[in-house]
Amino acid sequence: MTTIFRGNIVHTPRLGELKTIPRGYLVLEDGVIDGLYDHLPHRYDGVPVEDWGDRLIMQSFADMHVHAPQYAMEAIGMDLPLLEWLQTYAFPTEARYADTEFARRTYRRLAQELISWGTTRVAMFSSLHTDATLILMEELEKAGICGYVGKVNMDRNGGENLQETTEESLRETVRWLDSCHFAHIHPIITPRFTPSCTDELMRGLGKLGRERGLYVQSHLSENLSEMEWVRQLHPDCRRYWETYQKFGMWRSHTIMAHCVHSDVREQEAIRDANVLVAHCAASNVNLCSGTAPVREMLDRGLWVALGSDVAGGDHLSMARNIEHAIRASKIRRIESNWHTPFLTVAEGLYLGTTAGHRYFGAGNGFAKGDKLHAIVVDDSALPEGVRELTVRERAERLVYQMRQEFITAVYSDSRRVR
Length: 418
Ligand code: GUN
Ligand code: FE
Description:
Elements: E1 2-14, E2 17-29, E3 32-37, E4 49-59, E5 61-67, H1 82-95, H2 100-116, E6 119-125, H3 130-143, E7 146-150, E8 152-153, H4 166-179, E9 185-187, E10 190-191, H5 199-212, E11 217-220, H6 224-233, H7 242-245, E12 255-258, H8 264-273, E13 276-279, H9 281-286, H10 294-299, E14 303-306, H11 318-335, H12 345-352, H13 354-357, E15 374-377, H14 391-401, E16 407-412, E17 415-416
Parallel strand pairs: 1-4, 5-6, 6-7, 7-9, 8-10, 11-12, 12-13, 13-14
Antiparallel strand pairs: 1-2, 2-3, 4-15, 15-16, 16-17
């Protein structure tokens, strides 16, 4: 079956390359992208066209690091540094998800909000609760979202009602993995971060991940006190990343959130292992963690994509998170005596879309052979320019000015989900 969309097509096939096709055509054959055209080839004569008029057809977003249970505390209590913030706000909030009805309500709304902002792929942390995690996966699946969700593992330093024994953590992880039967939402091994997991648990998770061929996600070098703590816990490790490598979790497609304070050696280890850096600029400023050396990491050839890190991050909108990444890179430029260039809008868009989608096996931009992950955006409520704006200018403005009500349609895995 052939489906043809018409509209102002915008996509980012490569870092820094923003391509537009004004009033162009996007053709799907049996739900798979077949081509992009500025003029429709004659072989499609007579095939009906879904014409989106002057709207923009853009890539949907990928949120590569987000904490589902923390949605309940979104945009509250960002007044403490990481370790104190976890103990004071995040852990007590996550403990609430022993209540599966609360989990259902919150996760249903979370899934709907993600779609409403045009996020169709995620790498997400749940809490340590197996049942709530399965509910989360179910709600994401129902909303039409694709991606990975992890039951969080933590057998130390969790505080009241948010800690498992090592044995329980591993047993529950197996029970959870054995219950995951979703079409678009898959499990990912999720040790919270090194201070939350004993060596025995890490060893067990590393083994489980290898046996079942699962990816891994965690946190790395987010905050200086956290890093000092990790050095005390693992005096044999020269750098934080080695605490994951030690247990077989440092491999291709491991996702490491933050990497704000990763030095050159750690960055090289990330690049050489094909680990994905989930850069969470808003969170890094909210929790006063720092500004990550994103430009430097990109120049060094690391794979970087973006995460909202709600609720260290304050907003699910990935357009807003792209904006934060650009702004943080400019602050870093100012603070580094103008030594590092900032992220351009085209680069930001790439990081918030293609770089994340590639984690799921997608190609560059709207690539032939890929399923469609797209949003249709109506920006007609924004101010008229002194001349007609180019499609590129309109895309640029949307990074800063995206609103939920602009997103007219959302396609995820080629299904219309809004
Ligand atoms: N490190 C360990 N857990 C967390 C978390 O929930 N949020 C953030 N930002 N960092 C973490
Ligand atoms: Fe996080």
